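Backbone geometry:

***
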Amino acid sequence: MSKYPAGHTVGAIYEGSSGNPYLDAMPDMLSPEQFAQAVASYPPIPYDMARMSPEERRGLLPSLASIYVPMPYQYAIYDTLYRAIATTYRTADVVESTRAINAYYCGRDTNYATQADSGSILGVPGCGKTATVHRCLSTMPQVIEHMEYQGQPCYCKQVLWLHVECPSDCSVKTLGFSIMAALDRAIGSKYLQSTQGLRSASASAIAVQTKILLTNHHVGLLVIDEIQNAVLTARKNHQEKPLLRYLVELTNETMTSIYFVGTPVAEELFVSQEHLKRRTRGIRLAPFRPDGAYLDFLNKIWPYQYTEQMAELTTSIGNKLYDCSGGIPAYIIKIFGESQAQALIQGRSYIDEKIIQRAVDLLAIKVPRTYAAGTHISDFEIGMVVPEPPLDQEEISRQYANKRGRKAAQRDDGDLLVAYNNGVGIEAHLSENGYLEADYRG
């Protein structure tokens, strides 16, 4: 059991006596079992579905989007984010926070013996990065209110995490305002409203204000989602440098851990900037393999069939779904739902491979043949260290449930390809099989 009840804002409960109220008030880390129970989402199936019309059944299909199946890779992300928050509070105490704010106001550099954590979580679109980050953060209260610590007054609001999106215009000011808005939503402040007069202020002034707010409210983790926006905008307008400089300043000069979330497109930017390489290491997600983890996922969602009859999960249907979705969870759910919709519209009793193909054609789903380097979500295991792909790892080929291409032809023992594959010399092979003629002239 967590020491805090579910909720957005909670009163501080201290465990330990480190002398740091923010660290002693940290929520407990959940076990894999507790985490799975906290994030799982399986919508109820109506008990009277047998009496429903096809239109009413189709009305139930949107509930498929709320299915969330706990998997080991999600716990790996939770563990990463939790430790990032803990690192912030092992770095920051009351004295350091005060010194940092004074330094910001005076325009001086801030230097700490230990910096906060930073990294990134990148993955193929549809693997569930954003949804997983939201659910991981939802297992912790966002705000902890302090009143008294070790017999001394200590009134403040500790913000464990903030979640914002990278601005599409790659603007430092827009990101700064987004952080202020997220902080306002968290603690009910009006920082964004109070900066209306700063709309004409320089980007550096907004950046300084943001650093002060992050430090003053003891923000443990700042998650910047859709970081690939910086890359896409940079390609068009060449404006990535000011934003990147600002992000590096945040990681260096605040005591807030920062994690970037996005697609593998962002990796191109991270590895191209020397100062970003070490600050952006982290989990890289690739889709399911056609293996037991994929089948377990299908078994969890398979009861959610709203057709008249439930189709059996055969090997053939499982392979068809994998080949059409590429093992991407969002595509699997989308195809599964649209297949049922098409079956109900056509008056079919259950889904089959033809219906699945029709759904894929209607949705115009085309999965790539290669993916950026990463760890397949099938390969995460509790109790196993997550492998990190090297920076120069090549793209991984798209896997299929069914083998593609023509079957290998049967070849005679005398075939040259057989000799080559067996490591036999060509001359010896020709001589052994009577294909080599001796010339006795002269």
